[in-house]
Design goal:
Layout lengths: L4 H19 L10 H9 L14 E4 L5 E5 L14 H11 L11 H14 L9 H12 L4 H8 L3 H17 L2 H11 L1 E3 L2 E2 L1 H9 L8 H12 L10 H20 L5 H9 L19 H13 L7 H10 L3 E4 L3 H14 L6 E8 L6 E6 L2 E2 L11 E2 L15 E2 L5 H10 L7 E4 L2 E2 L20 E2 L8 E4 H6 L3 H11 L1 H10 L22 E2 L1 H12 L3 E3 L4 E5 L5 E3 L4 E3 L3 H16 L13 E6 L5 E7 L4 E8 L9 E5 L2 E5 L6 H12 L13 H4 L7 H31 L4 H7 L4 H8 L11 H5 L13 H5 L20 H7 L5
Length: about 800
C-alpha cells in the first residue's frame, strides 16, 4: 500500500509524464505545471464508473444443451480461481511484472520498458501498468457515446494523466487479485474474444482453467497486439502470434515464472490452435426458427425491459442463461417429417409447431426452408428470413388461412350451449349467408354475394349431425350451425383459446369465420388445440422456462394458463374429433395411440392444415405457397417428390403430422382421453340421418363388392393365362429346347436328340404330370381355341398354332 499518497503520486506523475513524453513526443492536449502536480495526485477522484461487462446470452434446450447465443462482445466472465495459475503468471509477466509490488504506477518498470522498446524498435514490454490498462478498458467499455469512446483512446497527456489518477483510485478500492480478475475479464485477445474465458474457447476450444503453458503464453502475447495477431486472419498473423508467444515465454523466464528448459520446450511446439467458431444470432443455430422465436420474445415482451433499447441491451450484453422448453426429440421429429415430403427449394412451404398441453410450452418449431438469406438476397430460394411457424410478433409473416380447423370452435360452442351427440339438421347442397350473422358489435355481417359449397371429398348435402358434419368436414353444415349458435359466440370461444391473427390485426368476424377465413400461424393453432387435450385449460405459448442472471440468480417462468372450457365440454370435443381418424377425413392414418384432430382445406386450395393432439402433445401443420396463397393455389403442383392434383388437409399436412407425432412420442407411454358424460351429451337425434347412413353404408358395401369382383375376375384371368412360366422361358431357350417344351402329344420324336431319347412316346391324349405345361394347363376339348389370350396377339402365326395347342 501507499505509505504516502502525495509523495508516491508525485513520483508516479513524473514517471507517467516522462513515459508519455518519451513514447509519444508529439502529442496534443493540456500540460501540467509543477506546482499543480501535488494537488492533482493527492486529490484523487473516485474509481471510474464500472458498467456491467457485456457478456454472452446463451439459449439452452430442455436438457441443458446450448443451441444458440447472442452477444455484442463474446465474453464470459470468470472468477480468478477459475483461471489457470500459469495464465495469471504469463499476463503479469508480459504486461506488468512488478504488479504486486507497486501502487498503480511502476516508475522503474515504465522507464525500463521505454528503454527496451526503444532499443528493439517496437513494443516488447508494456509501458502502462496493468491497473492503468484496466482503467482504459473500463472507460472504453463504459462510454455512452462515440465522443466518450474517442476521449478514452486519445493519444495525449491529458488521457494518460486521467488514467493514472483513476488507477491510483482503483488501487485503493480493490485488492491486487481483484484488479487482475477484472483485467482478465475485460481485455480483448483478438478473433472476437473478449476476456480470457472466451479467448480460451475461441483459440483452443478449452476453458481458462485448463490452459497449458504454451496456450497461456499465446493468449498473453495476443493482448498487446490483438488485431495484428488475430489467428483467424491468415498466416502472417499466425507468424506474429508465435513471435509474441515466444516473447512472453522469455519474459516469464526473466521474472522467474518458469525455467529456461520449460520455455525452450514450449518454443519447440507449434501454436496448436483449435479455433472454435462462436457464431452469434440464430442463422447458424441448429434450431434457427425456435431461436428466432425466443429472440423476438426477449425483444418484444415488456417483462424484459421497459423500452426496446433496454430489452436489446439486456439480451445482447446481459450474460443471461435462458433455458427453453425445446425438446430435441420432438424438434428432430418435426424436421424429419417435413423434410421427407417438402423440399427447401419448393415454393410451397410447410411449417409445424408442437405444444405441450397444460403448460403451453413450445416443444418444437420446424419449417421446410432453411433460415437465412438467399444468395443475392433473392425472394425465392431454399432460405427464408420469416419465422414460418410463428406469428408476426415473433418474426413470422402473414400466415395462411386456417381452413376447416376453425370448425372445432363452432363445435365447442354448440356443445357449451347444450347440443348433444347426434343432434343435427338437413343441409342443402349450397348456401348463401345472406341472413342471421352478426359480429360481436351487433352489426349484420351477412354476405349475400357469396355462395358456399361443400369442399370436394368432404361431405355433401343431406342430414348431418355434430359427428358426421365434423368427420366429413361439411362446410354448409358448419355455416348453418354457426348461425344457430351465434357468430359472436363462436368468435368468443376462439379468442378464449388464444386465437388471434398472425399479423396481429383484429379477427375478421365474418360468416366464413368457421371455415377459417383468418390467417393463422402453427404455434397459435397448436396452443388452441392443446386446450382440448388439457381438458379446457388454455395456456399461452411459452418458450422460456428459466432465466439465470450473470450473478447466478434464477428466475422461473411459470405457465400462464386459465380455464377456457368446462372439462365435460372439452371431453365431448375430444370424443367427436377422435372420430376424424376412425370415421372421417383422416381415416386410415393413425399414430398407434388415441388422438384427435381436424383437417383444414381452404377454399380454392389456397392452403391446407392439420391440427391434432394426444393427451401429451399437440401439433399443427400448415402448407401454402410462400409467393402468395391466392395467386398460387395448391393445385396441380409438384411438392417434394410427389405430384398433387390438389393439396387437402389429409393429403400432405396430415401425413406430416402423423409421422412427426409418432417419432416425437416414441418414448412416451400411450394415454387416452376421458370418456364424455353421455348423460349430458348423449341422446341427440337428426331426422333422416339414420336412413341416410344406412343408404350410405349400403352404397359403400356395393362399391366394395364390385371392387372385389373386379379383382377376382382379374385374378381368374391371370391364373388361366397359358403357360406364363414357360412363355418367359421361350425368350431364353434355344429353338430345339422350345420345341421340346412346347411339344404336343402326337408330335414326331427324333431319337438322335437326347431329350427325345429320354422321353418315350406317349399316347396322343396322354398327359405327363411331370411336365410343367401339362400340370399347369387344364385339358381342353379338341379343336377348341382359348379365346383372345394376350399371347395370341404377340406371337407369329406358326408360334400361335403350337401355343394354342390343337390336338392332332
Amino acid at each position: 500500500m501507499l505509505r504516502s499518497v502525495g509523495v508516491l503520486a508525485v513520483a508516479g506523475a513524473i514517471g507517467g509524464v516522462l513515459a508519455a513524453a518519451l513514447a509519444a513526443p508529439v502529442v496534443t492536449g493540456a500540460g501540467l505545471s509543477a506546482k499543480n502536480v501535488a494537488t492533482t495526485f493527492v486529490d484523487l477522484p473516485p474509481a471510474p464508473r464500472e458498467e456491467p461487462l457485456s457478456q454472452v446470452t446463451r439459449l439452452l434446450d430442455r436438457n441443458g444443451k446450448q443451441f444458440a447465443q447472442f452477444y455484442e462482445a463474446n465474453r464470459t466472465t470468470v472468477r480468478l480461481d477459475q483461471v489457470a495459475p500459469v495464465m495469471r503468471k504469463a499476463i503479469v509477466a508480459i504486461e506488468d511484472a512488478r504488479f504486486y509490488e507497486h501502487g498503480g504506477l511502476d516508475v522503474k518498470g515504465t522507464i525500463r520498458a521505454l528503454l527496451t522498446n526503444t532499443q528493439a524498435g517496437g513494443i516488447k514490454q508494456g509501458g502502462s501498468s496493468l491497473t492503468q490498462q484496466l482503467v482504459k478498458n473500463i472507460l472504453v467499455e463504459g462510454a455512452r457515446s462515440d465522443a466518450e469512446r474517442d476521449r478514452a483512446r486519445a493519444p495525449n497527456l491529458a488521457r494518460k494523466i486521467t488514467e493514472l489518477r483513476y488507477a491510483l483510485a482503483m488501487e485503493e478500492k480493490y485488492r491486487k487479485d481483484e484488479i487482475l480478475e477484472k483485467y482478465l475479464n475485460i481485455a480483448y485477445f483478438g478473433a472476437g474474444a473478449h476476456g480470457v474465458e472466451a479467448a480460451a474457447r475461441r483459440f483452443f476450444s478449452t476453458t481458462a482453467a485448463r490452459l497449458t503453458l504454451t496456450q497461456a503464453a499465446t493468449l498473453a502475447g495476443a493482448v498487446r497486439m490483438p488485431y495484428s495477431t488475430d489467428p483467424s486472419l491468415g498466416d502472417r498473423h499466425l507468424v506474429r502470434l508465435r513471435q509474441r508467444r515466444d516473447i512472453v515465454l522469455d519474459r516469464m523466464v526473466g521474472v522467474g515464472g518458469i525455467s529456461a528448459q520449460e520455455a525452450a520446450a514450449a518454443k519447440r511446439t507449434g501454436l496448436d490452435l483449435k479455433l472454435h467458431p462462436e457464431p452469434g444470432g440464430c442463422a447458424q443455430s441448429n434450431y434457427p426458427f425456435y431461436c428466432y422465436y425466443v429472440q423476438r420474445e426477449l425483444l418484444s415482451n415488456p417483462a424484459f425491459g421497459n423500452t426496446p433499447a433496454k430489452r436489446q441491451a439486456r439480451m445482447s450484453t446481459g450474460g443471461l442463461v435462458i433455458r427453453t422448453s425445446l425438446d430435441p426429440v420432438a424438434q428432430r421429429a418435426a424436421e424429419h417429417a417435413i423434410r421427407q415430403r417438402v423440399h427447401p427449394d419448393d415454393t410451397q412451404v410447410a411449417a409445424e409447431a408442437m405444444v405441450e398441453p397444460g403448460t403451453g410450452r413450445i416443444m418444437a418449431m420446424a419449417a421446410s426452408k432453411r433460415f437465412g438469406r438467399n444468395p443475392g438476397n433473392k425472394k425465392n430460394g431454399a432460405r427464408t428470413t420469416f419465422n414460418l411457424p410463428a406469428d408476426m410478433t415473433h418474426g413470422g409473416g402473414m400466415g395462411f388461412q386456417a381452413g376447416s380447423t376453425f370448425k372445432v370452435f363452432t363445435l365447442a360452442t354448440a356443445l357449451k350451449q347444450g347440443w348433444r351427440f347426434g343432434d343435427g339438421f338437413q343441409t342443402p347442397g349450397e348456401l348463401t349467408p345472406d341472413q342471421g350473422y352478426r359480429d360481436c358489435r351487433g352489426r349484420r355481417v351477412n354476405d349475400p354475394k357469396t355462395t358456399i359449397y361443400n369442399a370436394s371429398g368432404e361431405g355433401a348435402g343431406g342430414p348431418h349431425s355434430l359427428e358426421t358434419g365434423t368427420w366429413k368436414s361439411v362446410n354448409i353444415f358448419y355455416m348453418m350451425l354457426e348461425r344457430k349458435v351465434g357468430l359472436c359466440n363462436v368468435v368468443t370461444t376462439a379468442k378464449s383459446l388464444g386465437i388471434s391473427r398472425a399479423d396481429g390485426t383484429p379477427l375478421r368476424e365474418v360468416p366464413t369465420f368457421t371455415l377459417g377465413a383468418n390467417e393463422m400461424d402453427p404455434v397459435t393453432v397448436a396452443a388452441a388445440f392443446a386446450t382440448f387435450a388439457a381438458r379446457g385449460r388454455y395456456c399461452r405459448p411459452l418458450a422460456i422456462v428459466e432465466i439465470t442472471g450473470r450473478a447466478g440468480e434464477r428466475t422461473q417462468v411459470p405457465p400462464a394458463c386459465e380455464e377456457a372450457l368446462d372439462r365435460p365440454v372439452a371431453d365431448a370435443v375430444n370424443w367427436v374429433l377422435g372420430g376424424v381418424f376412425t370415421e372421417g377425413t383422416m381415416r386410415g392414418q393413425s399414430i398407434g395411440r388415441p388422438a384427435a384432430g381436424k383437417t383444414g382445406t381452404n377454399n380454392g386450395y389456397t392452403s391446407a392444415w392439420f391440427a391434432g393432439y394426444t393427451p401429451d402433445l399437440a401439433a399443427a401443420v400448415s402448407v401454402g405457397d410462400i409467393r402468395g396463397a391466392y395467386r398460387y393455389p395448391l393445385q396441380n403442383v409438384q411438392i417434394g417428390d410427389e405430384y398433387y392434383g390438389s393439396v387437402q388437409g389429409a393429403s400432405l399436412p396430415g401425413p406430416i403430422w402423423v409421422d412427426s407425432m409418432q417419432e416425437a412420442l416414441s418414448d412416451t407411454a400411450p394415454s387416452g382421453f376421458p370418456r364424455p358424460d353421455m348423460s349430458r351429451f348423449g341422446g341427440g337425434f337428426t331426422p333422416g340421418l339414420k336412413e341416410a347412413l344406412e343408404a350410405e353404408a349400403k352404397a359403400r358395401h356395393e362399391h366394395e363388392r364390385f371392387a372385389r369382383d373386379r379383382r377376382r375376375k382379374f385374378d381368374h384371368r391371370g391364373r388361366f393365362t397359358f403357360m406364363d412360366r414357360w412363355n418367359r422361358r421361350d425368350f431364353r431357350e434355344p429353338r430345339h429346347r422350345r420345341d421340346v417344351l412346347e411339344r404336343r402329344p402326337g408330335a414326331a420324336l427324333d431319337p438322335r436328340r437326347p431329350e427325345d431319347a429320354r422321353d418315350p412316346r406317349r399316347p396322343e391324349d396322354a398327359r405327363d404330370p411331370r411336365r410343367p405345361e401339362d400340370v399347369m394347363e387344364p385339358r381342353r376339348p379338341d379343336d377348341v381355341l382359348e379365346p383372345r389370350r394376350p399371347r395370341d396377339f404377340l406371337e407369329p402365326r406358326h408360334r400361335r398354332d403350337r401355343i394354342n395347342r390343337h390336338f392332332r
